[in-house]
Amino acid sequence: MPLLKLQNVEKYYGNRSSLTKAVNDISFTVEKGEFTAIMGASGSGKTTLLNCISTIDRVTAGHIFLEDTDITKLKGKALNKFRREKLGFIFQDFNLMDTLTAYENIALALSIQKRSAKDIDKAVKNVAEQLGITEVLEKYPYQMSGGQKQRVASARAIVTEPKLILADEPTGALDSKSAKLLLERFSYLNHEHDATIMMVTHDSFTASYASRVLFIKDGKLFNEINRGGDSRKQFFDKIIDVVTLLGGDVSDAL
After folding, report:
1. Is 175 within 8 Å of 146 (Cβ atoms)?
2. What pTM did the predictor assign?
3. What is the DSSP letter of 98?
4. Taking the CA of residue 48 as centre, how many other CA atoms within 13 Å lie in the half-sphere pointing to its CB?
């Protein structure tokens, strides 16, 4: 049974006179432990698709299942509980709370789950070590670099051990060194902890860290490639080939 299943998902904006099909009849599945990237040009529908999966947006039609739960039918407290317990979010602009230290930002998600102080301390220190941010735990966001902030945001997303980690352009605000470090940590979580990751990106280099890439064009699924036994360089070259087919309007910078 797949971890995630999208069935004929559609998301429309506007009214009859000016209807925009941001997501147009998309279906696919994601297995547990997969690292999937979603690529497409600006306005292709990739972020809208991620927002539907993350329950930030409601679908116009179709169904999204996480394990055996139809998340398109969740409302109110059940929806909040689902987001809190099953999903981890990583945003491009970090979304850290400025008045909290890195430790407190990461611990917040566990506090909401009413975990014991001892459990929280152990989990925070463990995830900080995995992501190489132990030295910034007592710092506030304004005292950190962009790369450190993004890794703190990633730690906050994964500390609850969610079923699915959703990342929207996670390297968009990072320099190349910080981006590479973050992507290597994603790979580590994926391979060593069997984390299931779904990441929206416009960047071929970022996408090459995934095990599968879905390409979205005009709200539809345009193509899909799997890494298989390829090296990351070989997979990157294949991604570039599809980007060229898409019209080259996706950033393909190294």
Report:
1. yes
2. 0.88
3. T
4. 26
